[in-house]
Amino acid sequence: MSSERAEVAEVCGRLARAGLLIGTAGNVSVRVRDRVAVTATGTVLEQITPEEVTVVDLAGDVVAGELAPTSELQLHLGIYRAFETAAVVHTHAPRAITLGLVRDELPVVHYQQLPLGGPTPVVPFHPFGTAELAEAVRDSLTDRQAVLLANHGAVTTADSLERAVEYALLLEWACGIYLDALSAGVPRPLTHTQQDAVREVTARLGYGAPKPL
């Protein structure tokens, strides 16, 4: 999984430069069949190298690499065992953290949030690295691609690492929009009917994908 280890290292740098990861806080993984390439614990994520990405099996046993995997390994593995997903991104993004301090959910306030699965729930606080946190995140991801972690950060999942990164950036953007709106008044979420109307238009127009003339 040398290419996957390199991909994980590359996206960690991108996320750190975007302000979603800081220092050693956060972790990223990608799955290929029964192998998972995941950031090693204690690594500075903006500077992480492919050699600092560890490969484990779905039982958590190390199969490649010289460093222990992230302390949040069980969070990642719990998601992979429960869902057909290819990547997990866990950030300590500032706007995501801020919203998780004051709300129980990020409602859909913009149609670009719809790929995340609708409103984004805030998982109650559990200490990092615990089975309780891993289970709470797993359970909250049913029919969702993103969750917020109270007093902690955010998790996004997708069918590719690139898309999981896009979702992490999208979630942070949406949190910022919502928090900005709160300073001006009461945000007005999209209704279920409005969300369904956007889904219909998106499907009919093939919105979001390049189209030849």
From TrEMBL:
Molecular function (Gene Ontology), one example: metal ion binding
Protein name stated in the entry: L-fuculose-phosphate aldolase
InterPro entries: Aldolase_class_II_sugar_metab, Aldolase_II/adducin_N, Aldolase_II/adducin_N_sf
Domain of life: Bacteria
Keyword Protein biosynthesis recorded: no
Keywords for the protein's UniProt record, in alphabetical order: Lyase, Metal-binding
BP term (GO), one: pentose catabolic process
Residues in Class II aldolase/adducin N-terminal domain copies: 6-179
One Pfam family this sequence matches: Aldolase_II
Gene Ontology cellular-component terms listed: cytosol
Keyword Metal-binding: yes
Transmembrane parts of this sequence: none
Cross-referenced SUPFAM superfamilies: AraD/HMP-PK domain-like
